[in-house]
Amino acid sequence: MRGGGRVGSKKAFLTRSGLDRRAMTAIGFIDEWGPDNVHIAMTRFSGWNVLLNGLTGQRGWGRQWRDPEPKDGYDAVIVGGGLHGLATAYYLAKNHGVKNIAVLEKGWLGGGNAGRNTTIVRSNYMLPGNREFYEHSLKLWEELSHDLNYNVMFSQRSHVSLLHSPAAVDAAARRYNTMRLTGSDGELWQLDELKKNVPHLNYGPDTRFPICGAAVQRRAGTARHDAVAWGYARAADGRGVDIIQNCEVTGVTRDGGKVTGLETSRGTIRGKKIGFAVAGNTSRLWTMAGLGTLPIESHKLQAFVTEPVKPLLDQVVVFGVGGAHFYISQSDKGGMVFGGDIDWYKSYAQRGNLPMIQDVAECATSVLPCLGRLRLLRHWSGVMDMSMDGSFFICKTPLDNLYLNAGWNYGGFKASPASGWYFADLIANDRPHRIIAEHDLGRFERGVNIDERGAGPDPKLHG
Ligand SMILES: Cc1cc2nc3c(=O)[nH]c(=O)nc-3n(C[C@H](O)[C@H](O)[C@H](O)COP(=O)(O)OP(=O)(O)OC[C@H]3O[C@@H](n4cnc5c(N)ncnc54)[C@H](O)[C@@H]3O)c2cc1C
After folding, report:
1. pLDDT value, residue 21
2. pTM of the predicted model, to two decimals?
3. Residue of 77, 78, 105, 113 with the most ligand 1 atoms within 8 Å of its CB, for mutation
4. Quick check: helix, strand or coil at residue 22?
5. Which of 36, 253, 304, 447 has its CA 20 to 30 A from that of 142?
């Protein structure tokens, strides 16, 4: 995404209108540019700015980030301008003071899974390593709009997992008690409480999977995915990161055990440290680096949105039992946003197929029969980086200066703040933080269990 308007004309307007440019810059009303077109400060969003722009014809808003030409080399190059790549660049600059950073994106920001997901954010994980990571992420989400000075529309509307048997209630009690004991939040709802809070579900006695209660995380919810990508891009740019769109990495050059540079559609770019954050395209980049194969498969996941309706559902609701998998929330515009399982065969295409549409529609109407009256507006698909144990990789690689961020399965949206935070920490310090120490490529040899779903070594089962 590119912002509009030239900063020069904005300054000219302010001077013409007699407003003091220094005062305007000081309160963040206009962007401040130094010599050689260096961006010193971006326009800050604030009540003041909205008011001033309202009074001056909305001419104070500059572009949201620059469109720089790539330099020959950088201290750190992150491949992939999705949420994980952008967040990594932001935290590298913010937390570790790295100055010379580039993010290379083959298309446009948010064109991958970043802008295709169903935006569910939660931290209901149980296993050590996972639970601390996702709870850290949720805490970052809670402050993200302020931190980025960009409204990511994080809505903590509760995540409600339906339970369909006494055994499921017991398993949820174990998980949600562990969450509470380790500093997160969680609760169990009996049927009457669930009916009161989510009245439109199918509670009839003849349903295939009668509902007997729910496991709930109230701090969980949704956020606006595009806003998160734009917010991280803008904040990273504000700290000097070069975000280079339409720049596809086509080759990786090596000198023995070190990466020397990246061949791209915009020329060769050298990097002292390189990070891969390309989600469903990870195995392609890995092959370019001459590293063989990865314990990751690329699968397609579809999502759907209906025509807008009046408020129907206040929470995120998840239905998963006996092979069914379905999750739904209502967008701010009123559309019902939902998804189900992956398409169950490997592909790099960002396009899904009919059998899964039918499967998801069946789940939808069985759990919320009133959806049967709605028209589907759009559906789309993204390429998921599914790992053998359903857990992510944030780790060093066999090459000295190459770092890997991948394996996000269905859950990389909620993970993006913590993913960027820990990946930046790894790249800056060249060692994994203790929380992510088991999330490396060697864990399968060591027999580490971070398979949260307990589904075993079959990537397509890790929904
Ligand atoms: C339909 C769907 C629903 C989902 N729902 C949820 C959800 O509700 N909650 C949740 O937590 N997660 C969800 N996810 C998962 C989440 O969206 C992903 O795990 C996450 O977005 C992946 O990280 P990313 O944003 O960095 O990936 P991406 O946005 O895919 O970023 C990777 C980027 O790398 C770029 N790239 C690839 N190859 C190259 C190259 N050679 N050179 C340069 N750039 C390259 C791509 O163009 C892309 O922009 C969902 C995903 C999908 C598809």
Report:
1. 53
2. 0.93
3. 113
4. helix
5. 304
